[in-house]
Specification:
By secondary structure, this protein is α+β, with helices and mostly antiparallel strands. It contains four helices and nine strands; from the N terminus they run ββαβαββαββββα. Belongs to the bacterial ribosomal protein bL9 family.
Length: 169
Amino acid sequence: MQIILLQRIVNLGKLGETVDVKPGYGRNFLIPLGKALPATAANIEKFEARRAELEAEEAKEVAVAQERADALTDVNVIMRAKSGDEGKLFGSIGTRDIAEALTNSGLEVDRAEIKLPEGTLRQVGEYNVDIQLHHDVTASILVTILSEDGDNQDSAEEVEDENEDYSEE
């Protein structure tokens, strides 16, 4: 089935491209959600008439996402969690926790925008976390996880130092 994309769709194409998709994907998902139109002669003419409007909307979305990314530049989120002697957290810190911390600091971020490619954070330390605000706009923030009792972090570093001393012998 040939369709015209009304917006960028990951792994499929950009705005205005005519692509082939399976009929079920086109009829049951893309067309009802307003992401595509069937590629008929009448729809192609309608699309060409609206192309400038759709491209302007896309540019506006990118500009808004870029403003949000600029606001997130140099943001450092400090979180405290219970941890064991070796710096391993009791539990984990995920996208929901990071989004909540950012929202509490006055920056509106949805948890779906936060990308943790290696999964949840389970160790005390510093992590660079990407926030995908738009297909083309990504911001990076620094998340620092500290132990609720400051002693645990120091002892974890001492344990690592001791382990290094033993491994050298």
